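ok new one. same drill as before - structure tokens go in, u give me an amino acid for every spot. 258 of them this time. try not to just spam alanines like last time pls lmao
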């Protein structure tokens, strides 16, 4: 881990562990994402290298800034302190739901990040959006983290032979067939918002099906239901054609209810 001083473990997944560390040369706190030696995932160095290559190209206020890639097994980036969406859901009491307007604000912020990625040159599809990859900081701002499965898109904005990976429940049907485009992120944002609003984990439900949100959480505005339904349409051409359209509809709900 080079000259960084590890302070504590922040979290871990199948591919890597993330530590809070300090650069003693600058006294700056950073996050170190280090490959696991016991990972069940094949070719883990590829995924971390992929994340480093993508993060190095990005400049968005809600994406951790890239610092360096050390020894081919440690990614250094900004440390984001807070809780991820999955942990926030787990902390709710029985029968308790997250504040709807709060979730919509997070959705707008994530939609803004994804719009940036989709219009980046070259365009990028995140490909693994879910609550666990959304960090909420102390100012209640949403950050997008964990770009290891992201894909750089060609000029056509679609890949038809991608490795069919993602998270069950959040990945759309075409992603299982190796088809990747910005539409996979639109579906995943709809699935993510559905989970945050209803607490129904799509990984435990029948694939590609989502219960009507107001039947589970009556606090949800009527106008939000068709947004979720459109984003999570089984057929990709029935979803929002672009992320900025979905973002505009989410903003419209906040403005209407203000």
């Amino acid at each position: 881990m080079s000259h960084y001083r590890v302070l504590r473990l922040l979290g871990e997944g199948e591919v890597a562990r993330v530590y809070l560390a300090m650069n003693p040369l600058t006294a700056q706190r950073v996050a170190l994402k280090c490959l696991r030696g016991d990972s069940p995932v094949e070719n883990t160095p590829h995924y971390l290298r992929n994340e480093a290559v993508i993060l190095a190209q990005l400049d968005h206020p809600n994406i951790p800034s890239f610092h360096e890639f050390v020894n081919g097994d440690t990614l250094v980036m900004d440390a984001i302190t807070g809780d991820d969406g999955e942990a926030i859901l787990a902390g709710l009491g029985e029968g308790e739901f997250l504040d709807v307007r709060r979730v919509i604000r997070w959705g707008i912020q994530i939609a803004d990040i994804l719009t940036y990625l989709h219009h980046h040159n070259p365009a990028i599809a995140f490909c693994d959006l879910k609550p666990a990859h959304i960090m909420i900081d102390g100012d209640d701002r949403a950050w997008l983290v964990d770009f290891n499965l992201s894909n750089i898109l060609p000029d056509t904005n679609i890949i038809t032979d991608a490795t069919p990976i993602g998270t069950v429940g959040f990945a759309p049907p075409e992603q299982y067939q190796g088809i990747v485009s910005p539409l996979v992120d639109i579906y995943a944002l709809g699935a993510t918002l559905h989970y945050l609003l209803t607490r129904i984990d799509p990984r435990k439900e029948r694939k590609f099906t989502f219960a009507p949100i107001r039947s589970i959480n009556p606090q949800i505005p009527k106008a939000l239901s068709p947004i979720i339904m459109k984003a999570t349409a089984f057929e990709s051409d029935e979803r929002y054609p672009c992320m900025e359209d979905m973002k505009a509809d989410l903003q419209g709900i906040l403005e209407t209810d203000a």
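The radius of gyration is 18 Å. and btw The domain at 83-257 is CATH 1.10.510.10 (Transferase(Phosphotransferase); domain 1).
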